[in-house]
Amino acid sequence: MRTRTLSRSVAAAAALALSLVAAAVPGCSGARSAPDQMHGAALSQSSEASIAVFPEEVPVHESDVQVAGDEVAVIVTEKGEIRIRFFPQDAPNHVASFIELARSGFYDGTTFHRVEPGFVVQGGDPYSKTGEGPVGTGGPGWRLKAEFNDRPHLEGTVAMARAQDPDSAGSQFYICLAPAPFLDGKYTVFGEVVDGMDVVKRIEPGDVMVSVRIERGR
Question: Lower CB count within 10 Å: N or C terminus of the chain?
């Protein structure tokens, strides 16, 4: 499979200021911004951040991966493994696309570039390993049509980050550290952590996904 990232010039030209959705997270003080594809430095300074907006020439992707339904993603980090089961019945193309990227080695060496305690950890930006653009704004060179569903955002929920356009998810994903019901129906939930949530809770910004492999269920 051929994957590519948005060039530095394209990402810069396509960036705009977006007022991010914010809401209180149960058990946490202060407000949290929605898990958009964001530049981490800007996020730390303001509730407004520069985000990547996919140019029109970036195609909508329909993965041709055949999903059996029992696949499990295993994210290997230096702190341990995180195992994720998928929801192909609720988000078939997001699941197939994630599997496609993982099998190609796309995620290997990327980092968790965003960590908000009590809210989410986020990763999967190719810029975090290539340095081609601002971390938090990269993608695989395609976008996915939204597959919003009824799956709630609970602790361990896995969903795709996106820009303002609902059909702009790519490779960046987030894992919820606590329930976040204000995100329900606004982001495509495509899986959940079934083992290694203790590892997720120890993730720090810059922690590397040494590898992301796809296994068949046991």
Answer: C
